[in-house]
Amino acid sequence: MKNNIKIYDLDRGMTDFEPKAIALGNFDGIHIGHQKLIKKDLEIARQLNLVPSVLLFKENSKKTLIDEKDYLTSLNDKIEIFSNMGMDTFCILEFNEDFRSLSPREFISEILYKKLNTKYIVIGEDYHFGKNAEGDIKTLARFQDEFGFETTIVDFEVDNGVKISSGSIKELIKNGNIAKANKYLGRNYKIIGHVVDGHKRGRTLNFPTANLEMNFSYTVPKDGVYLTRVNVRGKNHFALTNIGSNPTFENDFRKIETYILDFSEDIYGENITIEFLEFFRGDLKFESVDDLINQMEIDKKRAIDTINKKYL
Ligand SMILES: Cc1cc2nc3c(=O)[nH]c(=O)nc-3n(C[C@H](O)[C@H](O)[C@H](O)COP(=O)(O)O)c2cc1C
Ligand SMILES: Nc1ncnc2c1ncn2[C@@H]1O[C@H](COP(=O)(O)OP(=O)(O)O)[C@@H](O)[C@H]1O
Fold first, then answer.
1. Which residue's CA is minimally distant from atom 31 of ligand 1?
2. pLDDT tens digits for 218-229?
3. pLDDT digit string, tens, across residues 293-306
4. Dist CA 182 CA 91 (whole Å)
């Protein structure tokens, strides 16, 4: 992440009056459509000497709310990806009752105008805002003279006539179609968490696996075996990740476990990032542990061949 970024937490009364070109949206996944919008915002900011900024919502931190939703990117991921693209100012706020009750006009006047000195807004064509999502691109047009801003609407990015969306990428990931999801994301899908204890069985099979507890409600890819790239203590390693409930063994639960190639360190408790490169096969129930080990050896050979051919 760039280290000169500025984050203004509006809930803590922070404001910033530098004139801004603000990108508005939910931006889950920051897929190639979102990237197009951000590039537009950066371009306009450069031309008009405005600060390129993005308004983002904090995650739902209320644990009492049963939130079964899953997402492609956490707030931290978004800030990292956007700052790598050149964005340097982030305005964050909670999507709470107070915020939700603002009318479209109040959102524009209280937040965009008074708190952020917005001179330019860049949005997607389906953007909605304000109470009951009543505000849209027409509402922005109606208020732009009064509050002194201009608007640019960026059209959807499509693939074969189909709109690229966070929802469709989540479906691809849940169906194991990592290649297409990565294409639409414009980078490899990744999840972050820390390493927790498992049954200590992996080492007895000669395939120790670091079990991941995710630090966010990421969309979990379909059960199966993936070629992955894992970042541990700042260093990348190729790996095989198995997602599933180990059907060869009875009474297990669904987990995300990773066998790191050419690696033998104890990493319990460490934060790791898993980047999904390719889907290899589904999760299988084997007749014997030896059959499972044979298959894992085959997976490993395929991983090494693929890495040599495509990733080195
Ligand atoms: C490359 C790879 C492929 C795997 N494929 C399967 C599989 O198809 N079926 C299965 O039951 N377990 C599979 N496993 C999971 C093993 O059963 C699991 O790693 C082992 O039970 C160790 O569990 P532990 O980490 O809780 O000790 C796979 C593991 C790896 C690393
Ligand atoms: N190549 C490796 N890949 C993954 N984890 C490894 C590797 N080498 C050593 N380890 C360590 O071993 C642990 C996994 O061993 P395992 O027997 O599968 O135990 P557990 O069931 O607790 O996951 C990892 O959490 C990590 O600390």
1. 259
2. 999 999 999 999
3. 999 999 999 999 99
4. 28
Q: Is the pLDDT of residue 63 over 50?
A: no
Question: pLDDT at residue 22 above 80?
Answer: yes
Ligand 2 within 6 A of CB of 160: no
Q: Is 255 in the pocket of ligand 2 (CB under 6 A)?
A: no
Ligand nearest to the CA of 196: 2
Counting ligands in written order, the one closest to the CA of 246 is 1
The atom of ligand 1 lying closest to the CA of 247 is 11
Q: How far apart are the CA of 204 and the centre of ligand 2, in A?
A: 10
Separation of 246 CA from ligand 1 center, angstroms?
Answer: 6
Global confidence as pTM: 0.94
Q: Pinpoint the alpha helices (H) of the chain.
A: 32-48, 75-85, 97-100, 104-106, 137-147, 166-174, 178-185, 289-306
Of 135, 60, 58, the C-alpha closest to 90 is 58
Q: Which protein residue has the closest C-alpha to ligand 1 atom 6?
A: 283
pLDDT surpassing 90 at residue 257: yes
CB of 210 sitting under 6 A from ligand 2: yes
Note the pLDDT tens digit of each residue in 96-148: 888 889 999 999 999 999 999 999 999 999 899 999 889 999 999 999 999 99
Closest C-alpha to ligand 1, atom 15: 246
Paired tokens of 309: 């051919």
DSSP assignment of 108-122 equals IIIIIIIIT-EEEEE
What is the model's pLDDT at position 64?
A: 39
